[in-house]
Amino acid sequence: MEANVSSPLNWTSLPTPDPFNIAAHVNATEKPFSVFEGCEHQVEGILFDLTVQCVNVIVGIPANLLVIVILIRNCKNPTTSDMFLGFLAFMDFYFGTMTPLSFLNFYYWHSKKVWSALKFSYGVKDTSGPLFLSCICLDRFVAVLFPVMFGQFKPVKYRLSLTALVLCLTFAYSAAKTVGGLPNFEKVFTGEILATFCWMVLCNVCILWALKKSRGAGKDEMHPMKKKAFNMVLSLNCIIVFNYLPPVALFPFEDYYSPDMFRCYVQPVGFAFLNISSTIQPLVYLSRLEKLPFLSDTCFKKWCNGDSAENNKTHPAENISA
After folding, report:
1. Residue 222's pLDDT is what?
2. According to the 3-state scheme, what is the secondary structure of 266-315?
3. Could you give the CA distance from residue 259 to residue 262 in angstroms, rounded to a whole number?
């Protein structure tokens, strides 16, 4: 029974191929969720990931709901990245709601259909987050470095097409993850996270460089609006590095770890850093707003330490505020 209690806690590490534990197929009725059998005495990484999932439930779910409400209320005057932000918040909300179902299914339901739905949600989180963030970075990149082209591609149909492509890729990956048994399937996620991480960092570095050099002739100080955008992109770039660098640095070297080390420590910790983005991303968005709904101006100013006075005078450029 101890194997059953500890092994499924780190559900985010499902990309590990099932052939590591052939016995699970033979005795599937007895241990249907024993993804991490053999980690009973190496639970530190699993507990770390479990703590992150609890944070996503307690903080991430209401934060993402608030982001969705704000975007809906601002739909008459949206920014160019609001569509990507809205879908990203919805996917993170969906992923957070599946965590309580995971506990219920493990301890009470023991349903294979629910387990398949859980695996699908892990695939959604693996794919939708990096891809939608890459779309947001692309939107900022074109807006800052190619403003004329940005004006040509500003109609919503282009963002609808890109969103549809991301959703198709997400659902295809999630369906394949749910079915399982595909050879070297975990390499798909490794390649995706490497490509999207490099792209996001490159876009943000280019934006920072363009804003830094756009002070104008004879000016030592950056324009307040551009300075605010510069600080915002810099902070977001740090968050991207924090969330995505651990899996990027660890997962490509899977073959250099022992199977137990990779399953019990490397994968849980790497996915935990990725999963906490479901909480960090909406909080960063909410912290940049001039006013939060359902919160008085006095409370909001006190929450922001009175730092919103300048924000009321200079609003960030629309193409950077995503």
Report:
1. 64
2. HHHHHHHHHHCHHHHHHHHHHHCCCCCCCCCHHHHHHHCCCCCHHHHHCC
3. 5
Tell me how far apart the alpha carbons of residues 45 and 246 are, in angstroms, rounded to a whole number.
13
Contact criterion met (CB below 8 Å) for 274 and 244: yes
Euclidean distance between CA atoms 266 and 310, whole angstroms: 44
94 and 123 Cβ atoms separated by less than 8 Å: no
All residues at 6 or more sequence positions from 98 whose CB lies less than 8 Å from its CB, including other chains: 117, 118, 121
Q: From CA 66, how far away is CA 87, in angstroms rounded?
A: 13
How many other CB atoms are there within 10 angstroms of residue 41's CB atom?
A: 8
Low-confidence residues in the chain, pLDDT < 50: 1-29, 32-35, 217-218, 305-322
- Which DSSP category does 183 fall into? T
Across 149-162, b (16+ Cβ under 10 Å) vs e yields ebeeeeeeeebeeb
CB atoms within 10 A of CB 255: 6
User: Can you give the pTM of this predicted structure?
Assistant: 0.79
